[in-house]
Amino acid sequence: MKKISVIVDVKDGVVVGDKKLIKDIISSYDGKRLKMTFEVARKTRTNQQNKYYWGVVVPIWKNIIKVEWGTILTTDETHEFLKNQYNFKEIVNHETGEIIKIPKQTKKNNTIEMIDFIERCRQGALLMFGVDIPLPNEYEIDLQ
What we know:
This protein has helices at 19-28, 47-69, 75-86, 111-129; strands spanning 9-11, 14-16, 88-92, 99-103. The chain is of the alpha+beta class. The strands form two sheets. A two-stranded antiparallel ribbon has the order 1-2. A two-stranded antiparallel sheet has the order 3-4. Strand 1 and strand 2 (14-16) form a beta hairpin. The model has no long low-confidence stretch (mean pLDDT 89).
């Protein structure tokens, strides 16, 4: 069977939600050994954030790279560049002190992480090239 996720609330140490659904899911694994993982449910990036990123931020950066560096990147290559520059996890090698940047998938960003990533993209464009990427409310694009 595949992995099943159910989002529930906990109040006063008790699960609040569709207890019958949870019971049905557990009984569907009867006779199996289960690995149960608990984590706080977080809101993933919104569709509007995603549309703004792909419809405004990435195309502007794609143009910046073309104009400033003379390099033509695809949309996906531009996205990979932005992830490497502004959406990464740092791992420190404690023996050498070297810091390694590992790009993170933007689809795993929650709403706050996506806001931070987009803002780092905007600040990078401004600081490196003097290009002010407009905020969603400053740019005419259908974000719905």
